[in-house]
Write a structure and sequence with these properties.
Oligomer: single chain
Strand content: over 45%
Distance between the termini: 64 Å
Number of strands: 8
Order of helices and strands: EEEEEEEE
Radius of gyration: 18 Å
């Protein structure tokens, strides 16, 4: 079973909006001849809905996934592909993106 880790990082776009990226890394399959890895992202822990991201990354053991600039939690798995056959999924990792601050107010002013 592959083990994957997730690192969330925030970055600013050229506009005033922000988005998030998740950098994933995993160990190579014990099976020789893997030709592709597929990263899946879900918005629920049971992985019972269609994935919101399905990204092929070839033989790379890392991937960077862009996520929306909203408060949310995403769950990720990775599979390996050899001879057109996809492996069972890796372990599941999740990342929670923080909500934007709210109720901003002025607390003092200086003349």
């Amino acid at each position: 079973m592959k083990k994957i880790i997730a690192v969330a990082a925030m970055f600013a776009l050229l506009s005033s909006a922000t988005a998030s990226e998740v950098k994933l890394a995993w160990d190579a399959s014990a099976t020789a001849g893997v030709t592709n890895h597929i990263v899946y992202a879900f918005t629920n822990a049971t992985l019972s809905t269609a994935p919101i991201v399905k990204q092929s990354v070839g033989t790379n053991l890392t991937a960077t996934i862009l996520t929306p600039p909203v408060s949310s939690r995403w769950w990720f798995i990775v599979t390996a592909v050899k001879d057109g056959v996809e492996s069972l999924p890796s372990n599941v990792v999740s990342v929670e993106f923080p909500a934007a601050p709210t109720n901003i107010r002025v607390v003092s002013t200086q003349p």
